[in-house]
Amino acid sequence: MTRPAAWLAWLACLGSAGLAVGAIGFLVVDDYSFWEALNEAPSVELALALPVVGALVASRHPRNPIGWILCVSGITQGMVELTYLYAQHSYVVDPGSLPGAGIAVWLSTWTWMPGFGLLLTFLPLLFPSGSLLSPRWRPVAWLSGVCLGSMVLLTAASQWSVRGPPLLGDLDDELPWFPPLILLLLVCGVASTASLLLRFRRSRGEERQQLKWLAFALTALAVLFLSDALTSGDVQNSVIALVIIPCVPGAIGLAILRYRLYDIDRIINRTLVYGSLTAMLGLVYAVVSLGVAALGSGVELFRSDVAVAGATLAVAAVFRPLRRRTQSFIDRRFYRNRYDAVRIVESFSARLREEVDLDSLTADLLATVNRAVQPANTSLWLRR
């Protein structure tokens, strides 16, 4: 089964890449501006990233549905992007220039739904093992499938007779059954997320590290949505999306393929430290700049050059001590076991300089290992 599955997975990846390249072609041919193309770039990037990771996972673990979910989501994302730009070219940019524009715009109205629904519900329900947490979650899976299938079938059937320029607009008002179904699907998504949280709470060892990778990527995605909700900078949010979007499929691939699985703790630690440090240094820079500018309010040069120089010197002066204190706080608060282990080993190193008796040194070493690592048993072998 492995070889046919691998061929099928990479064929899906190739098809999705072709759809993404076609979408890029329309962005170039239709002379989209740089900023307009930048707004479309995250969707094209998603159509490329999802199937690549999906093919890697599905070719190595064909019985795990996570890889196939990523492949299907990538194909549908590429399909909706290409068909919409195709219809936009045929109806708006160069009317009547391309055949089949009605079919293309019809496809663009519903092809986004399968990928969106699978990522929202079945991905958190089945990650990382490919099976439900327990049989109790089967109703959520069935309800998600029925809701998603109903959305796709109803939208495709109701819009088939239209197949024209009106489908380029917003159709929510013309589909009275769409809001209740999308709301039900979102409820299923919340339930699926609850399943993932419960799985994380019960997990141990390798599975816990896998879930940490996904949690890290989803946290980054939540930052993107928060930035989009709080700011009106489309360009800024598009650039952030270009950086964050590949993190989600990338984290899923690393988790399931178990490549450098245990590096996630170090990544989370560094993210917490440098994220907090960046925020604090930004605050220091802003306070010093405003303070110096206020003191020299009568001199234009003083307000500009001296304010920037003073703020930069202040940030440089507090960087290293602030980083040490932030690292220490993060370790104490979130990595207490490792923090205590480091303190225990440092204390043992200080005592080691003064220890001369071999028996006392052996007992002290075993006690230090027990306290720092907490193994099931310890023993020490000394070569005579």
Report on the structure:
- This protein is mostly helical.
- The protein has three domains: 2-259, Rhopdopsin 7-helix transmembrane proteins; 272-334, no CATH class; 338-373.
- It has 14 helices and no strands.
- Helix 11 (264-295) packs antiparallel against helix 12.
- The termini are far apart.
Order of helices and strands: HHHHHHHHHHHHHH
* Percent of sequence in beta strands: under 5%
Alpha-beta classification: mainly alpha
Characterize the overall form.
globular
Q: What is the overall number of helices?
A: 14
Q: What count of structural domains? A: 3
User: Roughly what percent helix?
Assistant: over 70%
CATH domain topology of the largest domain? Rhopdopsin 7-helix transmembrane proteins
CATH class of the largest domain: Mainly Alpha
Would you identify the regions where 5 or more consecutive residues have pLDDT less than 50? Answer: none
In total, the number of strands is 0
In the CATH hierarchy, the architecture of the largest domain is Up-down Bundle
**Mean residue pLDDT:** 79
Distance between the termini: 57 Å
